[in-house]
TrEMBL record:
Record keywords, A-Z: DNA-binding, Transcription, Transcription regulation
Lineage: Bacteria, Bacillati, Bacillota, Bacilli, Bacillales
Domain (HTH gntR-type): residue spans on this chain: 3-71
The protein's name: Trehalose operon repressor
SUPFAM superfamilies linked: Chorismate lyase-like, Winged helix' DNA-binding domain
Top-level taxon in the UniProt lineage: Bacteria
Pfam family, one: GntR
Amino acid sequence: MRTNKYLTIYDEIVEKIQSGQLKPNTKLPSENELVEQYDTSRETIRKALTMLSQNGYIQKIRGKGSFVLDVSKFDFPISGLVSFKELAQKMGKPWKTIVYEFALMKPDDYLQQHLNVTNKDNVWKVLRAREMDGERIILDKAFFNKKYVPILTREICEGSIYEYLEHDMELKISFAKKEIFVDEPTEEDQKYLDLKDYNHIVVVKNYVYLEDASLFEYTESRHRLDKFRFVDFARRGH
């Protein structure tokens, strides 16, 4: 049992949001109404609301009040380079990576263009579904230039490839160019994702570079539409 009143209020509102009793975009009662409802001080209510906001349950809009956010969606940072393992651990969700294809191959015309390689180069192909809370919600089609990633195994691909590249191979992964668009699911998506009745997916193309600006990875990440909210922080230049 929580001893601080604001934590008890926080827990109660979280439970209502997670159970669906408070639905996304619902406006919470005003601070005055909450003070009366919980028979407590305004400071206690503000502490509870601040904590709800910081943990992604509500959004406080100046002059309008506090609104419930959709907690069934995972925030996926557009501008960051975050591995699925890092995202899942941050969310505190049970996760698993299922490797469906792992092979060393010669690149076709499409890959030669997107990974800046020739038909004489070798490329690792890794097709993985990302499972969270028991549902396959991302399909990653990743290709790595063997010149920069000489050794890769299925076992590494079942964990975190970035963790292996940075810690074991000591590669300096620096930046990525990303393209994001909505697409209709392919047969591959239907086969390897738990799509339910969703007839569109969000595709993120990643061109990932090392510190010396060498392009070493091209990945298409195909996300189930209902599970992700793509977020970024933008500052206007002057």
